[in-house]
Inverse folding.
């Protein structure tokens, strides 16, 4: 015989035990999950309801793993034996198959079998549930207390702004459109690639190509895009059923557009074009003006930070060295490349500029700026920075102290003197030795050179070289030698090589005070002087003489042309009439009269002001008259112009305004507020203007009151 | 009654059963306590069902009437006195039993002629009720002024480009600061913060950028809670531009800039500047040419304002001066620019001014009403001495008068000693320049008669409440015709001022209503919602009651007392607790062993 009743009882108890311990486990894990979820949702934007079940499951599994011991029927019997002394440690017997039991065991088992079902089931499992409840309660109260904690604002803000963004980006798409795919191809240089979206509102980099592809749920005759309420672009059908349409456009301006499906216009969609900014150049070192004192290393440490939104393609330092002073300042321009290749969106550059390598001497100044180009080709440059090397010799010189005037000895002769000397030399040729003659001729050539250089300074010429004319003439005159150009040009002197072929504009010498005509004359003079010098140096004073004269004539011309001539004039006054003098008669004099009418056609402000009043009325009474609609229409035109310039500011208002004017949707007060706000922004600041007041009593009583008031005062 | 008997009978049976059970119980310890406990439990159960009533003698004075009105502090209820109320809303506030409602005070008083004194608690009686107690002793125990706005003012009609100024007081009884915000056209325009337990006068300003009718809102906020939200309706109207005649003894920059500014803003200006004796250079700007050689009546009547320098006024002939004076009396404005230390013309002699021995070439900050302008350099300041009848317009920051004004008949004579305001213009401070000249011209220019002079009473007409319109009839003698929206009102002539007529009506709609008088001059006024501006009405009520109480405070009449019995009921809670305790004891006792 089997002890079925007892077994049932024990099984029943086991089930109960299991259920209650499972419930306890659920409660415990629930309590832990509750506290955890509250903590997480408190410090992040994750939703509490989302995190709670996940966490619960995790904790449950975790608890299961760390405490895997299940309950077996043997444990139950042990427990029952402990709990009920009546069972005499024999409850396990009933669980065993009866044929495996000895006689005594059977006897004991049948005794237990009778006893067991009569026993009240122990309350242990329920007490377990109690502790579970306790945990759950504690967990609940902790999590409730935590919700009362002050929320960290930064976490909240990121959450709310993200959700706000999401809100902004949803736009209402006409119901006829089943699918919309907008491909935005950013210009190649931005390296942004292409992007797909399925909404009309666009935010694209400047110059981006936008491909629209619209699938409609029914055949449509025509789809147009209307940009800024003026430009219409028709979409092309892609299939015969006319349900797929596409077009593309390169966007270069911010504005807005709307879709027209068979004449039905959609909502307005914003186009925000993100402009490409030029490279931002920040020179951290040196200071705007710095001086290198005696003894300091003659170098400049340049620290630059370049930033661009898409990429920097090129950057260099444009340096100009100036030397000399007063009228004799010479400029030497140089382009210094950075020692590091420039690329990327942001780059910090360090460069040591050696001033000596630039050929700077004490007293010279270095002007430089950094020029950068982004990969769109936009150039930008920094401010000009000045580095100067102090001139100690200037400090040492006593010229300024000893004499008031800086007297420069007349070490060169005038052109006239050279002519006189040349003629004298030719006269004395017979009486002097050949060497003496050559020597004197050469000296005259030197004088001529000095004079030429002197005038050359006016042209900004610093060195002996100047226009090619002189050189060419030199070569043609000197046929004894077989000068080749290569001989003249040093090997590897790129500058000189380039000068031969380059067609130069904007030379430093052109930047003088002289007019072009004057300059060309001066140049011609210098050419003559050069020719004269050449002949003098080659001991041919006779040949040099014509050139000298020509140079002198040109110099005279120059002197004449730079002079301003004012002819002497006489004043002719009308003769006085003696009989009229000092009579004080003014009757012949007419009163000067000036008439002016200012008619402005700009009714913008007036229209907007009236439109606002119409909107205010609309708040009170939701109906518009024909005049009201006309008023709103004029304001809408203003809004369209404003929205095409800055859609983000005016587009929402324009959308609502269109609704209002069309009378499609009933508009609520907060929406009217939004339109009014935009119109107020359009109006700008209002200047106060005087206007005739009112408020005087119309009645004769009031009038006489004021009259009496005056009389009383006097 | 039958129910009571049934209850008592069944209770007795129940008690007997209980006592029997107790008696029969084996464990006879604490028998008597148990029996008493059972008895108490049953008795209190019965008393829970059948309330005990007892009578109290209550003394009531016959010729004294205590009336509670809205806003009353309940703790101020006088003991042993019967309290009445005339506010049905008070009855709804949970103490129905203590108050007796008087639907019509006048009727009640007529019915009870023995009432000699009326004591009122709370915000006071309405004006109609106040009239009915005129012959009685009246004492008023006002409640504290309610938190909110007890008084407020703004112009219901303002001129375009002028400021809307909302001025009033706010009383904050709360223990939190209150923010008062002027909101309109979708944005917050101005605001002020009132500290806790503070009462301040506030002034919120904004220049409305619209022409027509608008309703702004005045919102009181405490933290995020909106305490009140009231409407500020107003209308912005456009007025014809001021017509200006300028007579200059010599042209200078000040005139040139003023002339150009007026011209640019499309004002009709005639500018006459003297070249030689009886020779003038004349500019007609935005207007037709007229002869300006002689200052005569027909010339002056074309203008609202004459701007002239003192020297030029002095050069006018005697007859011209007389004409000018006459015209000012009629309403013309005269604005005199003074350059000399002493007055030359008859007009400037009406004022007293002089140069102080202060430093020259100083920058002055001028004050226009509450508006502080940018600094202005003045070589030689001339200050006015205040005379009676003067209305100073512009002050320096040291409160010295630089522009003075006086009434002269219906017109104004304004005198300015500020020589060069065009520096503002040159410095790009065009707003200061505009503010200054707008103020000066507005204050001095001719005032036009309003087409319609009317007043609406109360100042805040409410929906479904009586509103009176008082109209000054421009056509004296004839009865006025008043049309509100499309409703013709029957006018009533004022007894003392025959040109004033009154129309009474009950607005049935909130919002703007149009008012037409004599089929022509139309204007509009605003009718507020039911509960708008209740704080003002409460404050007004308290003030009116205090006023009456002050007048009618005489020696209190001898009070006759009448005793009256009043039934009261013993609270059931007592029996409930008794039942709970005894039953609890009986329950616990059974488990003690």
């Amino acid at each position: 015989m089997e002890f079925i009743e007892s077994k049932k009882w024990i099984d029943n108890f086991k089930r109960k035990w299991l259920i209650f311990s499972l419930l306890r486990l659920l409660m415990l894990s629930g309590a832990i999950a509750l506290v955890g979820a509250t903590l997480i949702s408190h410090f992040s934007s994750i939703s509490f309801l989302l995190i709670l079940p996940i966490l619960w499951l995790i904790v449950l599994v975790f608890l299961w793993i760390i405490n895997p011991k299940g309950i077996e029927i043997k444990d139950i019997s042990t427990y029952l034996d402990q709990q009920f002394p009546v069972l005499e440690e024999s409850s396990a017997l009933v669980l065993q198959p009866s044929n495996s039991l000895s006689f005594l065991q059977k006897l004991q088992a049948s005794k237990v079998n009778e006893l067991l079902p009569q026993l009240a089931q122990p309350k242990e499992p329920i007490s377990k549930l109690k502790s579970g409840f306790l945990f759950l309660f504690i967990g609940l109260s902790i999590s409730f207390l935590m919700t009362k904690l002050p929320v960290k604002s930064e976490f909240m803000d990121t959450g709310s702004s993200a959700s706000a963004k999401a809100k902004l980006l949803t736009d209402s798409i006409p119901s006829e459109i089943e699918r919309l795919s907008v491909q935005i191809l950013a210009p190649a240089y931005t390296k942004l690639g292409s992007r797909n979206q399925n909404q009309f509102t666009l935010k694209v980099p400047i110059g981006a190509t936008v491909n629209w592809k619209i699938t409609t749920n029914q055949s449509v005759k025509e789809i147009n895009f209307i940009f800024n309420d003026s430009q219409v672009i028709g979409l092309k059908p892609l299939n015969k059923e006319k349900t797929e349409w596409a077009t593309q456009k390169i966007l270069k301006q911010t504005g807005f557009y709307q879709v027209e499906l068979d004449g039905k216009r959609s909502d307005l969609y914003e186009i925000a074009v993100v402009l490409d900014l030029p490279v931002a150049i920040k020179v951290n070192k040196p200071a705007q003006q710095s001086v290198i004192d005696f003894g300091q290393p003659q170098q400049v440490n340049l620290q630059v930070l370049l930033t661009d939104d898409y990429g920097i393609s090129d950057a260099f330092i444009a340096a100009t060295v100036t030397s000399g002073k007063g009228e004799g300042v010479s400029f030497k321009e140089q382009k210094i490349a950075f020692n590091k290749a420039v690329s990327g969106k942001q780059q910090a550059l360090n460069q040591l500029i050696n001033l000596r390598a630039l050929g700077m001497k004490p007293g010279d100044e270095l002007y430089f700026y950094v020029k950068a180009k982004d990969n769109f080709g936009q150039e930008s440059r920094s401010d000009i920075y000045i580095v100067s090397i102090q001139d100690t010799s200037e400090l040492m010189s006593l010229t300024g102290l000893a004499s008031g005037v800086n007297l420069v000895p007349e070490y060169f002769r005038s052109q006239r003197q050279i002519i006189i000397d040349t003629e004298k030399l030719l006269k004395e040729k017979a009486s002097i030795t050949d060497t003496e003659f050559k020597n004197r001729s050469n000296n005259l050539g030197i004088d001529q050179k000095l004079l030429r250089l002197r005038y050359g300074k006016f042209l900004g010429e610093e060195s002996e070289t100047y226009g090619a004319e002189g050189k060419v003439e030199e070569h043609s005159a000197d046929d004894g030698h077989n000068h080749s150009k290569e001989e003249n040009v040093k090997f590897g002197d790129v500058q000189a090589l380039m000068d031969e072929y380059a067609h130069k504009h904007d030379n430093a010498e052109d930047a003088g005070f002289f007019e072009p005509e004057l300059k060309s004359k001066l140049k011609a003079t210098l050419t003559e002087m050069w020719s004269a010098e050449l002949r003098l140096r080659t001991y041919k004073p006779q040949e040099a003489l014509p050139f000298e004269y020509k140079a002198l004539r040109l110099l005279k011309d120059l002197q004449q042309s730079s002079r301003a001539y004012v002819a002497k004039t006489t004043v002719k006054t009308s003769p006085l009439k003696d009989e009229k003098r000092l009579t004080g008669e003014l009757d012949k004099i007419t009163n000067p009269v000036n008439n002016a009418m200012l008619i402005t056609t700009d009714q913008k402000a007036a229209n907007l002001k009236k439109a606002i009043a119409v909107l205010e009325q609309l708040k009170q009474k939701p109906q518009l008259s024909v005049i009201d609609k006309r008023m709103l229409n004029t304001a809408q035109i203003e809004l369209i112009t404003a929205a095409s310039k800055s859609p983000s500011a005016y587009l929402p208002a324009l959308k609502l305004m269109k609704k209002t004017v069309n009378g499609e949707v009933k508009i609520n007060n907060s929406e009217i507020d939004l339109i009014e706000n935009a119109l107020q922004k359009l109006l700008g600041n209002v200047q106060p203007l005087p206007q005739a007041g009112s408020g005087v009593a119309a009645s004769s009583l009031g009038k006489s009151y004021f009259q009496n008031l005056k009389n009383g005062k006097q | 009654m039958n129910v009571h008997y049934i209850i008592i009978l069944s209770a007795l049976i129940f008690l007997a059963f209980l006592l029997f059970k107790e008696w029969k119980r084996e464990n006879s310890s604490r028998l008597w306590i148990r029996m008493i406990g059972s008895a108490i439990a049953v008795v209190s159960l019965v008393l829970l069902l059948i309330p005990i009533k007892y009578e109290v003698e209550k003394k009531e004075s016959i010729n004294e009437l205590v009336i509670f009105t809205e806003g009353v502090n309940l703790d101020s209820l006088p003991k042993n006195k019967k309290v009445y109320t005339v506010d049905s809303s008070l009855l709804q506030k949970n103490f129905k039993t203590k108050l007796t409602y008087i639907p019509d005070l006048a009727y009640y008083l007529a019915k009870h002629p023995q009432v000699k004194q009326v004591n009122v608690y709370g915000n006071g009686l309405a004006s109609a009720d106040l009239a009915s107690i005129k012959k009685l002793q009246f004492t008023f125990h006002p409640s504290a002024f309610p938190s909110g706005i007890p008084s407020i003012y703004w112009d219901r009609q303002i001129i375009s480009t002028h400021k809307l100024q909302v001025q009033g007081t706010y009383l904050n009884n709360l223990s939190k600061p209150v923010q008062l915000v002027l909101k309109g056209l979708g944005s917050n325009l101005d605001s002020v913060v009132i500290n806790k337990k503070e009462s301040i006068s506030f002034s919120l300003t904004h220049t409305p950028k619209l022409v027509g009718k608008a309703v702004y809102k005045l919102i009181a906020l405490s933290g995020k809670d909106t305490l009140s939200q009231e409407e500020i309706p107003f209308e912005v109207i456009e007025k014809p531009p001021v017509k200006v005649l300028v007579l200059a003894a010599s042209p200078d920059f000040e005139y040139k800039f003023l002339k150009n500014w007026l011209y640019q803003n499309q004002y009709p200006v005639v500018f006459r500047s003297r070249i030689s004796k009886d020779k003038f250079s004349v500019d007609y700007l935005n207007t037709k040419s007229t002869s300006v050689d002689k200052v005569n009546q027909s010339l002056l009547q074309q203008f609202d304002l004459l701007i002239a320098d003192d020297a030029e006024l002095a050069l006018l002939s005697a007859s011209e001066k007389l004409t000018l004076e006459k015209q000012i009396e009629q309403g013309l404005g005269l604005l005199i620019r003074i350059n000399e230390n002493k007055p030359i013309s008859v007009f400037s002699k009406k004022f007293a001014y002089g140069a102080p021995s202060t430093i020259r070439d100083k920058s002055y900050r001028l004050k226009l009403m509450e508006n502080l302008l940018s600094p202005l350099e003045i070589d030689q300041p001339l200050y006015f001495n205040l005379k009676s009848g003067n209305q100073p317009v512009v002050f320096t920051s040291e409160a010295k008068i630089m522009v003075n004004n006086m009434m002269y008949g219906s017109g104004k004579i304004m005198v300015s000693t500020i020589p060069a305001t065009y520096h503002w213009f040159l410095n790009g401070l065009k707003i200061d320049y505009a503010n200054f000249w707008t103020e000066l011209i507005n204050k001095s220019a001719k005032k036009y008669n309003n087409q319609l002079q009317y007043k609406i009473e109360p100042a805040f007409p409410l929906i479904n409440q009586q509103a009176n319109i008082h109209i000054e009839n421009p056509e004296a003698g004839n009865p006025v015709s008043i049309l509100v929206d499309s409703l013709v009102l029957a006018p009533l002539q004022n007894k003392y001022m025959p040109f004033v007529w009154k129309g009474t009506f009950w607005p049935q709609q909130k919002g703007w209503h149009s008012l037409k008088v004599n089929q022509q001059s139309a204007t509009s006024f605003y009718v507020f919602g039911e509960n708008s501006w209740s704080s003002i009405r409460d404050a007004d009520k308290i003030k009116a009651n205090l006023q009456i109480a002050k007048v009618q405070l005489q020696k209190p009449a001898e009070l006759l007392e009448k005793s009256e019995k009043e039934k009261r009921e013993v609270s059931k809670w007592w029996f409930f607790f008794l039942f709970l305790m005894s039953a609890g004891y009986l329950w616990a006792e059974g488990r003690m062993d």
